[in-house]
Amino acid sequence: MWLSPGMGVKRWLVLFAVCTFAGALGFLHFTWTGPLHFTATRWILWLNRFIEPEVLPLYVVGVGLMALALGGAFWSIAMLNRSMLRGTGTAPGTAVVDLIYERRHLARGARVVTVGGGTGLSNLLMGLKVHTGNITAVVTVADDGGSSGRLRESLDMIAPGDLNDCYAALSDSPVLARLLLHRFGRGDGIEGHTFGNLMLATLSEEQGGLGAAMQDIHDVLRVRGQVFPATTQPTTLVAVLDDGREIRGESQLATSVGKARIREVRLDPPDLPALPAVLQAIKEAEMIVLGPGSLFTSIIPALLIPDIARAVCDSAAPLVYVASLMTEPGETTGLTLEDHVTAITAHLGRMPDCVLMNSEPVPQPVRERYAAEGASVLDLTGASRDLRGRVRSAALLQDGQARHDPAALAAALLNLIARARNAA
User: Fold this and answer.
1) CATH label of the domain that carries residue 328
2) By the number of CB atoms within 10 A of the CB, which of 19, 97, 220, 414 ranks highest?
3) H or E, element range at 276
């Protein structure tokens, strides 16, 4: 594996061998033409007493000696590396070459920007991190319920919950991912909070906001890729319904909409800044992925940041919307796929170039269970010709459930990137 393409090892091994050979020639020249000529001659004559030139020519002995010396040099370098790795706390052995190979391979992966929040985005990140390390997740921070809502109210910070889920999804360490998602079931003041939320709250408090703590977070967690909040300032999601009512707070949408439909959503305050790193990632992206996730509470809120919306609209990268598998009770009840795409277009100012849909039928028992809660399968019923032309389908179900399979979803998106590269 050390000699696999892209490892950056073969070139240095070749250079080492060439330099060693050149050094041997230089030493031979010095020995044969300099003051050591007498010693070299005596050495050859001494060998000649024990070796019959007709059986084993002396030049063969020289070649063998050179091979032994070169092998010894490589062995000494390997032992030096082993000692250095032990000194830095890295266990030597096959894990090292696996780690280096993995990092080199991931560094050459596609540059993907994902936008959204919730479990849908974290599932996507778990699938993508196997193929590329050039991932930038732009996460909505308007949540005001649960642990995030309590921390927002107490510390006047952005909601950390969706950020924490994404950090756990991109973590290289299963142990760290488990710790980040651990929710305290007891304890005065910390019951209901996750460890990751408390850690992000601590860094936010120490640095005066999560924006200033981003580098510290990435250094501590050592995730594959980057995770950034859509904005670093607290904001409230406001939904305007078609009956004229306004609902403030993301946590209120599902229960307060009733039979009305959401006409539009906005942020309060509206003109919020985005991190420069987010805008740079969008500029350099090979693909921008919206979702999967809740339409009005995960995807669109991140696109309401003016600088992000402008950067996405100006980007030449394909804009892909990963369609939800089911509608969400209250939030998108009765909406078609066309309605979902229209809502994104209206709020963003750019229509997705591609809509990725699941082609695998949702099992009937799952349909019935969701129908009892007021949800239905999102399909192409009533879709326009333009939308049908943008749809790409793939089998995306996970174990027959109404959720996206991370590996299948990542493979489908990478296939779209490969097609875009070939078309270019």
Assistant:
1) 3.40.50.10680
2) 414
3) helix 276-284
pLDDT single digits (tens) 350-363: 999 999 999 999 99
Regions of the chain where pLDDT drops below 70: 1-8, 47-49, 52-55, 58, 84-104, 424
Q: Are residues 137 and 59 in the same domain?
A: no
Report which secondary-structure segment, H or E, holds 226: strand 226-229
Q: What is the CB neighbour count within 10 angstroms for residue 211?
A: 18
140 touches 230 (CB < 8 A)? yes
Longest dimension (CA), the chain: 108
Neighbours of 43 (CB within 10 A): 12
pLDDT in tens, 363-400: 999 999 999 988 999 999 889 999 999 999 999 999 87
User: Which of 55, 75, 105 lies at the terminal end of a domain, its last residue?
Assistant: 105
Cβ neighbors of 39 (< 8 A, separation 6 or more) are 31
The answer to whether residue 291 sits within a structural domain is: yes
Note the pLDDT tens digit of each residue in 37-90: 777 777 777 766 677 666 677 677 777 877 888 788 878 877 777 776 665 555
Q: Are residues 133 and 265 in the same domain?
A: yes
Structure tokens at 288: 């921008």
Residues 281 and 342 in one domain: yes
CB-facing half-sphere around the CA of 44: CA atoms within 13 A: 13
Q: At what angle do helices 161-170 and 210-221 cross, to 10 degrees?
A: 20
**Residue 249 belongs to what domain range?**
110-423
Distance of CA 36 to the CA centre of its chain: 61
Predicted model pTM: 0.80
Considering its fold, how many domains does the chain have in total? 2
Q: Distance between CA atoms of 350 and 390, rounded to whole angstroms? A: 14
